């Protein structure tokens, strides 16, 4: 444990890698961020709890009276920089060194490097992720895979880089200020900005961010104040930062205008973070008697509440001259089965076509092989760099429409999939991998959040019954979980199962679904179980 400034302590392993990014000047900047903004961050998290209590007491979500003037006002966000005007296809991925190179070379217009739900926040991953960003921006990044000897380097032309720092709820326990862990989001943002903002601007781009899991416009205001402070402190021109906010919580859907307004000098629009949105919908409305969702597979982008929110995002953004980005389709290539692979690609094509014809200005893909599919759809239906000029005044979305409960059934298979996929994802995360291919789909933390939240609610809601009438109970879930664990043991073999942290993952999953006290984010208790694991693919070589 080293004390570097009067009040900042590094609790994580220190080596050559940490020395590269945790320079005394960078630490001083982090300390300033913490001291200036951490109290407000904590107050905003507390306000989330208070709003939850109101919802649990039967309160309804609605557009806010206090911000009517902003919704009805005539204002726009600042003009977009050149390299954010055409965002038709963005690839996302964790911050592993090889993946970073592959994503930048993928042919996508932009790459969102994720320090959040696609990355398990080990100290190693977070530090090496920063190093990978540093080297990628300066085009000095390369990687040699030890198994194959293959070397990866950047192409001449690469995607524009943006990063997703952790949300306001997550901590970076390896750095403490005044004996208190730092905010994960301030740590990720702060280090990236400190080392790269000026370099990015000198190279004709800028410090670009995706902001996850906001639940209120005041949380957007906090980010905006962080941006102003960071730019002022480091002598970077105000407005250099541009940030796209993920609308991925149900309360935020009622405050899209307000969020854009708070960030208007730094805004790069909104994105529909659809998986977390489903998670948030169940989480926030979990105690409302009329709300219960069917199997996850039946909740799609054509479910009325999902259509309502994506169309509202497009209308709201375009009114403010901001891009409205689409979301992620889970399908990834299926190796060795051409028919299944073609079907998976068709699903992605259909999803992207709906997005572009609705009016989205770009979309996300999870895998380089899907860049071309998404590009084809956007190239065909979006002939300009974006379609911000298409105002969608025809769209009418009501508060009731945003929360309309989707119909469908809860099946035994749906319950089994939630248990199995939830455990498999958590096990992968505990092994240090935040994005995982499971049953030929890309899964990240949002998947496990949806799975466990659905099961929690099904156990407690009177209508949480399988289609054959059986009530979903803690005992039934326990039994299903045991059976699914046995299947996983058979599928992976005893050795992989024993070393793969499946039992630990099942323990956490059980706690998440059986505890009456709902746990806000699985990554919070999970973080205590996330021991240090080193993944060579995130590391320099
Ligand atoms: C809900 C949300 O928040 S979505 C956003 C967050 N989630 C993500 O970003 C997940 C992104 N996707 C991924 O991480 C990956 O696609 C995974 C983990 C699901 C699958 O990865 P793999 O098992 O490596 O897939 P696969 O074997 O098909 O990969 C083939 C090649 O593509 C590369 N690749 C796959 N996905 C990506 C990606 N998203 N970015 C860059 N490269 C990628 C692999 O590195 C591999 O490279 P190689 O041939 O040089 O070794
Ligand atoms: O973060 C994205 C999502 O779909 O959730």
TrEMBL record:
Gene Ontology biological-process entries: glyoxylate cycle; tricarboxylic acid cycle
CDD domains per the UniProt record, alphabetical: malate_synt_A (cd00727)
Gene Ontology molecular function terms on file: malate synthase activity
The organism's taxonomic lineage, starting at the top: Bacteria, Bacillati, Bacillota, Bacilli, Bacillales
Catalytic activity from the UniProt record: glyoxylate + acetyl-CoA + H2O = (S)-malate + CoA + H(+)
Organism: Tetzosporium hominis
Metabolic or biological pathway: Carbohydrate metabolism; glyoxylate cycle; (S)-malate from isocitrate: step 2/2
Cited Pfam families: MS_C (PF20659), MS_N (PF20656), MS_TIM-barrel (PF01274)
Listed GO CC annotations: cytoplasm
Protein's name in the database: Malate synthase
Domain Malate synthase N-terminal: from-to ranges: 13-68
Similarity section: Belongs to the malate synthase family.
Top-rank taxon, per record: Bacteria
InterPro entries in alphabetical order: Malate_synth_C_sf, Malate_synth_sf, Malate_synthA, Malate_synthase_CS, Malate_synthase_TIM, MS_C, MS_N, MS_N_TIM-barrel_dom
Malate synthase C-terminal domain ranges (all copies): 410-530
Active site residues of this protein: 164 (proton acceptor), 444 (proton donor)
Keywords annotated in UniProt: Glyoxylate bypass, Transferase, Tricarboxylic acid cycle
């Amino acid at each position: 444990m080293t004390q570097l400034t009067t009040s900042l302590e590094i609790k994580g392993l220190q080596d050559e890698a940490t020395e590269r990014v945790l320079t005394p000047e960078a630490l001083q900047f982090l300390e300033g961020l913490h001291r200036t903004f951490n109290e407000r961050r904590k107050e905003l998290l507390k306000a989330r709890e208070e709003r939850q209590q109101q919802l649990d007491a039967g309160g309804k979500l609605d557009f806010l009276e206090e911000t009517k003037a902003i919704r009805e006002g005539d204002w726009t966000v600042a003009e977009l920089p050149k390299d954010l005007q055409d965002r038709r296809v963005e690839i996302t991925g964790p911050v592993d060194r090889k993946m970073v190179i592959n994503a930048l070379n993928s042919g996508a217009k932009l790459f969102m490097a994720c320090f959040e739900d696609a990355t398990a926040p080990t100290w190693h991953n977070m530090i090496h992720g920063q190093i990978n960003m540093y080297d990628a921006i300066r085009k000095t990044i390369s990687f040699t895979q030890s198994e194959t000897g293959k070397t990866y380097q950047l192409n001449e032309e690469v995607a524009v880089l943006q990063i997703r720092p952790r949300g306001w709820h997550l901590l970076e326990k390896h750095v403490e200020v005044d004996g208190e862990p730092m905010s994960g989001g301030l740590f990720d943002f702060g280090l990236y900005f400190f080392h790269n903002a000026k370099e990015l601007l000198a190279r004709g781009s800028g410090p670009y961010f995706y902001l996850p899991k906001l639940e209120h416009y005041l949380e957007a205001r906090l980010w905006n104040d962080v941006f102003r402070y960071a730019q002022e402190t480091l002598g970077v021109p105000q407005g250099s930062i541009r940030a796209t906010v993920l609308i991925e919580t149900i309360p935020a859907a009622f405050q899209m205008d307000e969020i854009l307004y708070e960030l208007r000098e730094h805004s790069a629009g909104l994105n529909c973070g659809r998986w977390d949105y489903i998670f948030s919908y169940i989480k926030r409305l979990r105690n409302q008697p009329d709300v219960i969702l069917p199997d996850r597979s039946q909740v799609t982008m054509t479910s009325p509440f999902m259509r309502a929110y994506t169309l509202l995002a497009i209308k709201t953004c375009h009114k403010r001259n901001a891009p409205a980005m689409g979301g992620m389709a889970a399908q990834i290539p299926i190796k060795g089965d051409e028919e299944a692979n073609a079907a998976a690609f068709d699903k992605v094509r259909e999803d992207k076509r709906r997005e572009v014809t609705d009016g989205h200005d770009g979309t996300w893909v999870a895998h380089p092989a899907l860049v071309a599919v998404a590009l084809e759809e956007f190239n065909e239906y979006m002939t300009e760099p974006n379609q911000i000029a298409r105002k969608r005044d025809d769209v009418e979305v009501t508060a009731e429409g945003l929360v309309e409960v989707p119909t469908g059934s809860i099946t035994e298979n749906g319950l089994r999939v939630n248990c199995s996929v939830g455990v498999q994802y958590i096990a992968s995360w505990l092994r240090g991998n935040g994005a995982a291919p499971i049953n030929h789909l890309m899964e990240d933390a949002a998947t496990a959040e949806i799975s466990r939240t659905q099961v929690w609610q099904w156990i407690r809601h009177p209508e949480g019954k399988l289609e054959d009438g059986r009530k979903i109970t803690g005992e039934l879930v326990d039994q299903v979980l045991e059976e699914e664990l046995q299947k996983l043991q058979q599928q992976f073999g005893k050795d992989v199962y024993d070393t793969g942290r499946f039992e630990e993952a099942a323990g956490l999953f059980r706690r998440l679904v059986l505890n009456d006290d709902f746990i806000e984010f699985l990554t919070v208790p999970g973080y205590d179980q996330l021991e240090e694991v080193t993944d060579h693919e995130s590391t320099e070589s």
